[in-house]
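User: For my dataset I need records formatted as: sequence, then structure tokens, nothing else. Please produce one.
Assistant:
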Amino acid sequence: MLDINSMSYKFICACIFISLTLIQHPCMSEENTTALDTLSPCPDTPNCVSSQAPKSDQEHYIAAFTYTKTPQQIIKILLSLIKSYPRIQIITHKANYLHVTFSSLIFRFTDDVEFLFDDSKKIIHVRSASRTGISDLGVNRKRIEALRSALQKALNENTDHHLP
């Protein structure tokens, strides 16, 4: 025979546990990443590139993007370029921060790509990292370089009168 008090206690404990696991701490919120002036460091695996990695770390370092227009103009162009890719999702879009995911065609591997604007230096820090695995066969580096090239081409083709 079941004891009602024992069942009530277990039920309450289970509810509290579930509630605590579903509550997201405010510091972990995606909304608060823009308060940072740095992106997360790359892990030891070779499936990540970042402009904030030490230049001596040839496996992970990639140059930041540079710009001369306003951050609003650049982010609009960058978003347009990103939206031309298949299987993307815009996770966070702030005035100085952009977080997008790219998914591979066959296995749906997800890569997180982040852009952090530093308007005082007119640079965009970039980070592209695979969520799983060890090697990405250079996909993250190629993606960032392709975006850099496309952004520069878009900027060279536009005059101040035609910028979005």
